[in-house]
Write a structure and sequence with these properties.
Order of helices and strands: EHEHEHEEHEHEHEHHHH
Number of domains: 1
CATH class: Alpha Beta
Strand order of the largest sheet: 3-2-1-4-7-6-8-5
Number of strands: 8
Distance between the termini: 40 Å
Helix content: 25-40%
Largest sheet: 8 strands, mixed
Radius of gyration: 19 Å
Length: 322
């Protein structure tokens, strides 16, 4: 007998002053092609927004009954926003995302299907940066996410867009890296993590060295915090493995070689600063300043079949493609 059960999922979008991006992301979610799942709610948690984010969501709610707006008057950190969403999510499965990404029309189905297997607790898609590749920081965004991709093929490191079983009612309010905590949660319950490389999600990398260092330092501190408090190390904490992958992916084109070496130096600097701030100054930036240069996503065409090619102004060079 065929099981035709449609599984339900609740999508949570965490937003802080995302007026530029929020409508495009919601449209992406509404246009998802789903056969085995039904999105019963798209909940946007607007945390201390001072722009028109809430107005845009309110307008879209009038046309789509499954859109829910939860507003926090003050920004209390991403973990706090996630907990507000989790406390009310009713789907069989949970999808978590920030508001500053885009996705293809089949992305959600791709990351949700593996969760139908009994031993899989959490999945994540493949982030693809939209940055140009003819600048240092743009090249760096593609280089780092390529390392992330290769790392995750061996040991999943999930982020940007994740899905998991609705077993988590709350995450620690002090975590700056919610995905890392969730990895620990499911791993300690003997449920596996699965990386889905054909579930594409588009993001924007930092465009300045200052923003790069701020972002990388904050993420590294967050990973150290999870390791200390939950005895769980994300895959990217293995510095030797990262170094080997970086060397493997260095291009010998003069400009790209120099950029890769400079990028590795910046990553080492960010990690050293993170260690210093975490161990000596006990810092844990779970409420962080917006990285402005990561927010200027450009609209994709609404034709799902052409999205991937229309999204990138310049395609990554061949050495970024596995």
């Amino acid at each position: 007998m065929t099981n035709n059960k449609i599984n339900t999922c609740s999508v949570g979008v965490m937003a802080f002053n995302e007026a530029v991006n929020i409508e495009l992301l919601i449209l992406d979610l509404l246009r998802q092609k789903m056969s085995k799942f039904s999105i019963i709610e798209i909940t946007i948690v607007a945390s201390g927004c001072t722009d028109s984010t809430q107005n845009i969501i309110a307008r879209m709610r009038k046309e789509h009954a499954n859109i829910i707006l939860l507003a926090q008057e003050q920004r209390q950190g991403k973990a706090s926003a996630i907990n507000l969403f989790l406390s009310q999510a009713i789907g069989d499965f949970i999808v978590l995302t920030g508001a500053d990404i885009r996705m293809n029309g089949d992305t959600l189905e791709r990351i949700l299907v593996p969760l139908l297997k009994g031993d899989v607790g959490m999945t994540g898609g493949r982030p693809v940066p939209v940055n140009r590749t003819d600048t240092f920081m743009g090249y760096g965004a593609h280089f780092l996410w390529q390392l992330h991709h290769q790392l995750s093929l061996n040991k999943p490191k999930l982020g940007e867009l994740v899905a998991f079983r609705n077993l988590v009612k709350e995450i620690p309010g002090e975590t700056a890296v919610d995905e890392a905590y969730l990895e620990a949660f499911f791993s300690k319950r003997s449920l596996t993590l699965e990386y889905i490389p054909n579930a594409l999600v588009y993001n924007k990398g930092p465009e300045t060295i200052k923003d790069f260092l701020l972002q990388r330092e904050r993420i590294f501190i967050g990973h150290l915090w999870v390791k200390k408090n939950y005895c769980y190390s994300v895959a990217s904490l293995d510095s030797w493995l990262i170094a080997k992958l970086a060397i493997k992916n260095i291009s010998f084109k003069p400009r790209h070689f120099v950029w890769a070496v400079e990028l590795m130096f910046l990553e080492i600097l960010a990690r050293l600063k993170g260690i210093l701030k975490f161990l000596i100054f006990k810092e844990n930036p779970y409420i962080w300043d917006r990285i402005i240069t990561t927010k200027s996503l450009v609209p994709m065409t609404m034709d799902d079949q052409k999205r991937s090619s229309a999204w990138l102004s310049i395609k990554p060079p061949a050495d970024f493609i596995v």
